[in-house]
Amino acid sequence: MGFKCRFLSSHLNKEESTLISTKEVDPETQTIWSVKGETNHISPETKLDLIKRRFPFTKSNEVLEIIDSFQQECRDSMKAEEEGDSTPKGKGKDQEFDKESGQPVAPQVEQRIKELSEHRIRQREVYLKYKDTRYFAQEKKPLDLHRKKIISPLTTVGNLPYRRLMRKLGADVTYSEMALAIPLIQGTNSEWALPKAHKSEVPGFGVQVACSKAWQAAKAAEALTDSVSDISEINLNSGCPIDLLYRQGSGSALLDNPARMIRCLNAMNYVSKEIPITVKIRTGTKEGHPIAEGLVKRLVNETDVAAITLHGRSRQQRYTKSADWEYVSQVADTLRSAEADFKETEQGKESRDSKKRIQFVGNGDVNNFEDWYRYLEGNTNIDSVMVARGALIKPWIFEEVDSQQYLDKTSTERLEILKDYAQFSMEHWGTDEYGISLCRRFFCEFMSFFHRYVPMGICERYPVKLNERPPNWCGRDDLETLMGSTDVNDWIKLSDMFFGKTDENFVFVPKHKSNSYTSGEARR
Predict the structure, then answer these.
(1) Disulfide: which of 317, 360, 369, 499 matches 400 by Cβ 3.0-4.6 Å?
(2) Is residue 143 part of a domain?
(3) Residue 401 lies in a domain
(4) Using CA atoms, how far apart are residues 250 and 242, in angstroms rounded to an integer?
(5) Is 234 helix (H, G, I), strand (E, B) or coil?
(6) Does residue 139 lie within any of the structural domains?
(7) Is 13 within 8 Å of 19 (Cβ atoms)?
(8) What is the pLDDT of residue 93?
(9) Domain identity same for 197 and 331
């Protein structure tokens, strides 16, 4: 009889004692691999197509051909000006080549020259077709960020359980962790886990992508658009200060090359169907040399982005010093002025609805409701304020925004927040040995920020600034003292309350080491 199938019941018709074909299997059985309540799962077939390079990047190929034709036309014009060349554009120079060489051309060379000539003629035709158009302008779903409570994209700590927790605590808009374009295009499992979202995040869930070239941006955006459904926006990361990404030309490196950033945004806008494209930038790459004001003017005139988020620090500053909200406000004013000027042009009248405007979001140093309202109400040209570390240290910050008062959570209330996070983690990563290990690791990553909250009841002055490092303090009870501990072993002790006793071989080193006062390493 052979081996008995352990999963026979999933493909057996018990009444007729016959096997069920794959197409007739119950849909719930087919999606048993997915987690209940989560969305944006890429199908195994699509992922395999990406891995095997069979995915049809139809729209990407179209827009890349258009972009290439514009770039080639620009190169030809510059070359003609330098050399005084009067050769008609779009024609090959094979006759000149023969004349200069004085030798018969090899068949292979002649064939290659012919192919290049035909390709250049094709590029010329594409250029003439699109040169007077905004080829990237597409019909998009409306994006409303006005006065929305927004959580910033956060690498490592901005995972699905944390975003789900923040939705429960009042957030309106959340973003995935930063996904790299090339691994997305290659179908890498770890990268495709990032766009997953909980149903509570929809609508209002954005996916952030980092790339260095237009072809990466186009293909990643098309793969996301065609493979997952519950996305409200795709955000281009142009502000990440990490050296590795910067050297590759991604993240904040795009600030040094605005033309490349614009090509990436236009390529994404062309392929993303009805999903709007947004961008997150910094003031610049070097301290004291801001470029955001000039950049937003180009974004208004040369792209069709739905929203711009500005972090009020340069790449060189990283997360030190205070965010320059005066400059953020200045850029917001410049954006509205540039937008008004653009709408008066012929292209502006044709491409943008008179009531539609680019959403502008400020980011940096928002640690309490007073910061949120001060930055938002200080300039009506700013649509909303994005919160990052402030929501990690104090996840109930949006409850304060709604109530417009400080909420000094007790140790028991804060423990309930940790309990919710632990529960959401186990539902997402599972409760087997590997799943609990992941839950514990990310719980400790969350604690590397959460422990920095200083209770209002023990402060001489309040609020505490985001970059301040207060002296050691003792809480109002033992649990509050434990949750405020800077010792990583105490974070692990807290994790034992939810995930059971830690394995003796468990080692935790915070990824964001700057957020731990001590050595930042613990071994059990």
Answers:
(1) 369
(2) no
(3) no
(4) 9
(5) strand
(6) no
(7) yes
(8) 45
(9) yes
The answer to whether 232 touches 203, Cβ cutoff 8 Å, is yes
Give 230-249 pLDDT, tens digit per residue.
999 999 999 999 999 999 99
Place of tokens 């943008």: 352
- The pairing of beta strand 277-282 with beta strand 307-311: parallel
Q: 220 and 343 share a domain?
A: yes
Place of tokens 């002055």: 461
3-state secondary structure 58-80: HHHHHHHHHHHHHHHHHHHHHHH
Q: What is the rounded CA–CA span in Å between residue 104 and residue 81?
A: 31
For residues 335 and 296, is the Cβ–Cβ distance under 8 A? Answer: yes
Residues 323 and 430 in one domain: no
Structural domains in the chain (count):
4
HEC string for 457-491: HHCCCCCCCCCCCCCCCCCCCHHHHHHCCCCHHHH
Q: By residue range, what is the domain housing residue 488? A: 411-523
Rounded distance between C-alpha atoms, residue 495 and residue 524, angstroms: 12
Assign residue 159 the CATH number of its domain: 3.20.20.70
Q: What burial class does residue 171 get, using C-beta atoms within 10 Å of its C-beta: 0-12 exposed, 13-18 middle, 19+ buried? A: buried
Please report the sign of the dihedral spanned by the C-alpha atoms of residue 472, residue 162, residue 181, residue 385: negative
Range in 276-280, 320-324, 426-430 with the lowest mean pLDDT: 320-324
Which residue type occupies 81?
A: E
Instruction: Please indicate, yes or no, whether residues 159 and 211 belong to a single structural domain of this protein.
Output: yes
Q: What tokens were used for 262?
A: 């614009």
Rounded CA-CA distance 241/253 in Å is 8
In a shared domain, residues 425 and 329: no
Q: Which is nearest to 109 in space by CA: 127, 92, 94?
A: 94
CA distance 283 to 183: 28
Distance of alpha carbon 219 from alpha carbon 237, whole angstroms: 16
Beta-bridge partners for 310? 281, 362
Q: Could you tell me if 440 and 467 lie in one domain? A: yes
Which of 5, 74, 240, 444 is catalytic? The answer is: 240
Percentage of the residues of the chain whose pLDDT score is greater than 70 = 85
Instruction: Write the CB contacts of 48 (distance below 8 Å, at least 6 apart in sequence).
Output: 54, 187
Residue 307: beta bridge partners? 278, 359
Q: Rounded to an integer, what distance in angstroms lies between the CA atom of residue 226 and that of residue 24?
A: 24
Q: Are strands 507-508 and 522-523 parallel, antiparallel or unpaired?
A: antiparallel
Question: What are the tens digits of pLDDT across the range 442-485?
Answer: 999 999 999 999 888 788 778 777 777 777 788 889 999 999 99
Domain boundary among 396, 423, 439: 396
Residue 444 among the catalytic residues: no
